[in-house]
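In response to reviewer comment 3 from the previous cycle, which asked for concrete evidence that the modeling workflow produces usable outputs, we include below a single protein chain processed end to end. The sequence was submitted unchanged, and the resulting structure tokens are shown without manual editing.
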Amino acid sequence: MVDIDGVISLFLRTQALAGAAAGAAADGAVEGSFHSIEGIPHFLSSTAAAHLLDLGELFELVWASGWEERANEHLPHLLGLPPRLPFLRFLDPSARGQRQTRGHWKLAAIDAYARGRPLAWVDDALDEACSAWADRRGAPTLLVQTIPELGLTRREAQVLREWATGLASAG
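The workflow returned the following structure tokens.
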């Protein structure tokens, strides 16, 4: 399960904008470019996209983002990602009575899609509800928290790769 904002579309600090415009964040760890998507500026990490392409050999990639189907409308041609990845639909936040700013608003849709299968979830807004849910699941579950200014980096991709490899060798 892959979130977009804070994982692929990064929240850049003001001081990082100059470096990001040149293709790398201030620390040089993230490459990407600015795009206007539906009139909103986004810094899309080509670093995260490259890691997702590699991880696609080990995982079924699924968009777990409020972008829903719009992820497939924009990200494949901007970042070279596979077209038409599965995506989750979420309830209207007013219908569920929860704030849409934390990861827990995604739990019902993620749980329904996973249906007891092993699951890795990459998001920048994981909270205690997510951890409690993961602990209760009957299937192996990995939560991978990203730093919203850096997104999916080599460190998180390595954690995901090792987890998937460990599952494959255990099963």
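Residues 154-170 form the longest helix (17 residues). We consider this sufficient to address the reviewer's concern, and the full set will be provided in the supplementary archive.
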